Amino acid sequence: MTTVAVVGLGKIGLPLAAQFAGKGLDVIGCDVMSEVVESINRGRSHILEEPGLDERVKKAVAEGRLKATTDTTAATSKADVVVVIVPLMVAADHTMDYRNIDSATQAVARGLRRGTLIVYETTLPVGTTRQRLGPALAAESGLVAGVDFHLAFSPERIYAGRVFDDLRKYPKIVGGIDAASTDKAVEFYRQVLDAEVWPVANAETAEFTKLAETTYRDVNIALANQLALYGANRDVNVGEAFKAANSQPFSHLHRPSIGVGGHCIPVYPHFLFNADPDLRLPPLARAINEEMGAWAVALATERVGSLQGVPVLVLGVAYRADVREDAFSSAFRLRDELKASGARVYGHDPYFPGEHLESMGFEPYDLASPAQARVAILQAGHAAYRDFDPGKIPGLELFVDGRNALDRATFDRAGIAYVGIGR
Ligand SMILES: NC(=O)c1ccc[n+]([C@@H]2O[C@H](COP(=O)([O-])OP(=O)(O)OC[C@H]3O[C@@H](n4cnc5c(N)ncnc54)[C@H](O)[C@@H]3O)[C@@H](O)[C@H]2O)c1
C-alpha cells in the first residue's frame, strides 16, 4: 500500500489529499495550522467553496484513508511519496518570500527516508526544484537527490472551485531532476489521477510550463485590451470581431477587461522576467493590463469633467466574479487612480462586509439605500450585479462596464451613458 504525505492542506492541497485517498492510498495530510488538522480529523473540510470536497473528506476519514497532522517530519518518515503544495508568497512589489516552502522542505528533509519520491506542485521560478529545494533536502537529510531519493516538479494547473472536474481533464505535467525521478512521479500520478499524465524533459520544463501558460494568458488579455480600445475608436463591434476572428483556429483572443487579478495570472509573469530583463513582451503586457484602471479614470474625466470631489462607485472589489478573494485585485489600482484624480471612492461587494471595504480604502456603499454617485465602474462581474438597476443610483451619469458583463439597453432606457471595453 502506498502512503502519501500531502504538505499544505489549503484550497488545492486538501482536494488533492481527498483525491489520493479516494483512489485507495493511505494519505497523511500535513499543515502548520492545528485548527485545519483538527477539523480534517473530525471529517470536516475547512474549505467550504469546493464542490464535493466535504463529502470526500468525510468518507476518506471515516474509512481511515485520510489523517491529518501538524508533524510533517513524522508523516514524511512513513510516506513513500510526499507532495508539497504550500504557497510561495509574493509581496505587493512581487518579490518572493520562500519561508513557507523552505520550512516545509526542512520538515520533510528531517523525516526523509531512502527511496521516497518528493514532488513539488507549488508554482515556482524555473530552476527552484533542482537548485534550491533539492540541495536543502539533501543538506538536512544527509541523503543525495537522484541517488537516495527521487525529486520532481509537477505544476498544479487546476482551478479552485472546480478542482475535481479539472483533475479529471487537465493533463498532469511531470518533470523530474533525472529520468528515474520522472518515471517514479509518472507512475504515482497514473495511480491517483484519471487524466493523462504527461512526462516532460526535466523539472525545469515542468516549472516553465506553468509560467508559460499563465504568462500567455496575461499577454493575450493585454492584446485583447489594446485591440478592443483600437476597435472601439473605429466603429468596430469588438465583441463580434473577436468572435469572428476566433472562428479561425489559430486565433484565441481572450476577453478585454479592466484588470487581471488573483494569485496567479498577474504574479507568475514576474517569476519569469524578474530573472531575465531581456524578456520584453511579458512586462509590457503586465504594464498594459495594469494601466486599464487609468484608462477608466481618463474616460470618466473625459465624460464628466474633473473628478475632484466627484463620488465614484466601484462595483466589485474581488479579483474576479463570485469569489471572496482580493489578492492582487485590479480594484486597488483603480482605487488609487481614482483617489489620485480627487474622486470620492465608494466600494461595494456582496462578498466583503462594509468594515472590510473600509480597511481596503473604499467608502462602503449600500445599494439598498444608495448615495449619490456620478460614475459607477463594474470591476468584478458578480452574478449579483446582473440585474443592476442604474436608475436607482442618484445622479448617475456614466457607467463603465469593466467586464463587458451588463446589457447596454438597460442603461439606454435609464438615459445613462454606458461604456464597455471596446463597446
Ligand atoms: N488556489 C488556486 O486556485 C491554485 C491553482 C493552481 C495552483 N495553485 C498552487 O497551489 C499553491 C497553494 O495554493 P492554495 O490555494 O492551496 O493555498 P492556501 O493558502 O489555500 O493553502 C495553503 C496551506 O498551506 C499551509 N502551509 C503553509 N506553510 C506550511 C508549511 N510550512 N507546512 C505545512 N503547511 C503549510 C497553510 O497553513 C495553508 O493551509 C499556490 O501557491 C499555487 O502555487 C493554487
**What does the radius of gyration come to?**
24 Å
Overall CATH class of the largest domain = Alpha Beta
Largest sheet, strands/sense/barrel: 8 strands, mixed
List each distinct ligand once.
Answer: nicotinamide-adenine-dinucleotide
Which consecutive residue ranges, at least 5 long each, have pLDDT under 50? Answer: none
Level-2 CATH architecture of the largest domain:
3-Layer(aba) Sandwich
Secondary structure category: alpha/beta
Give me the oligomer status: single chain
Widest β-sheet, arrangement of strands? 3-2-1-4-7-8-9-10
What report would you give on this structure?
The chain has 423 residues and is α/β, with parallel strands linked by helices. It has 2 domains: 3-201, Rossmann fold (3-Layer(aba) Sandwich), CATH 3.40.50.720; 290-420, NAD(P)-binding Rossmann-like Domain (Rossmann fold). 41% of the residues lie in helices and 15% in strands. It has helices spanning 13-22, 34-41, 53-62, 72-78, 99-111, 128-141, 163-169, 179-192, 203-232, 238-245, 268-273, 281-290, 292-304, 330-340, 354-359, 408-414, and strands spanning 3-7, 26-30, 66-69, 81-84, 89-90, 96-97, 117-120, 150-153, 172-176, 197-199, 311-315, 344-348, 363-364, 375-378, 398-401, 417-420. The strands form 3 sheets. Strands 3-2-1-4-7-8-9-10 form an 8-stranded mixed β-sheet, with helices on both faces. The protein has a 6-stranded parallel β-sheet with strand order 13-12-11-14-15-16, sandwiched between helices. The chain is elongated. The protein starts with a strand and ends with a strand. The model has no long low-confidence stretch (mean pLDDT 97). Bound molecules: nicotinamide-adenine-dinucleotide. Residues 7-13, 30-33, 36, 72, 85-88, 100, 103-104, 122-123, 156, 158-160 line the site of nicotinamide-adenine-dinucleotide.
